[in-house]
Amino acid sequence: MKQSLIEFVEAAPVLTEPGCASAAGDVQAILPLLKLMSEPNRLRIFALLAGGERCVCDIEADMRLPQNLVSHHLGLLRDAGFIRARRAGRWVYYSVNKEMLASVYPVICRLFNPECVNDGASNAGQTCRVCSSE
Fold first, then answer.
1. Lowest mean pLDDT among 43-47, 52-56, 73-77, 130-134
2. How many domains, in total, are found in the chain?
C-alpha cells in the first residue's frame, strides 16, 4: 500500500538543526493545513479567495464545479478557520481568514526554508539565520 505524504510526515523521525524551531511542533501545527490543501479543488478555491472575497455563485462559476461540491469544500475550509463567511441578504460571501494565515505562515517558512536544512558537512553545527533571529 502506498504511503500518503501526511502519513510519511507523521512517521518521519524528528531531526532538527541545533537552535532551529522544533520540527515536531511545526509539523503538528501545519498538518491540518497540509491535509486540507492536499485536495486540488480546495487548494484552487483557497487560491481564488486569496484574490478577494467572492460569493458562492461566483466560486461555482469560476471553478466549474457543482454547487454541492463547492459548498462541501467551503465548509471544510471554514470549519478549519482558513476562510470566513459573511452573509449579505440571501448571498454568502467567502474570504481568506488573514489572521489564521498569519499564524501558519511562519511555520510554513521554517519547514520549507533551505537555510534550516542540515545538508551535512557544509552547515554541520551551525544555526540557521532565520530560526536564530526569532
1. 130-134
2. 1
The alpha carbon of 56 is separated from its chain's Cα centroid by a whole number of angstroms, namely 22
Please check whether residue 77 is in contact with residue 45, taking contact to mean a CB–CB distance below 8 angstroms.
yes
Q: Report residue 6 as a C-alpha cell.
A: 501526511
Mean pLDDT, rounded, for 27-33: 80
Q: How many helices (H) and strands (E) does the chain have?
A: 7, 3
Distance of CA 62 to CAs 45, 56, 58, 68, 100, Å? Answer: 9, 10, 6, 15, 24
How many angstroms from the chain centroid is the CA of residue 18?
A: 25
Distance of CA 25 to the CA centre of its chain: 15
Stated as kind and residue range, the H or E segment containing 77 is helix 67-79
CATH of the domain at 130: 1.10.10.10
Phi and psi at residue 77, in whole multiples of 5°? -65, -40
> Please, are residues 46 and 81 in contact by the beta-carbon 8 Å criterion?
no
Per-residue pLDDT at 132 exceeds 90: no
- Residue ranges making up the domain that contains 100: 41-113+126-134
Global pTM reads 0.70
Distance, CA of 33 to CA of 36 (rounded, Å): 5
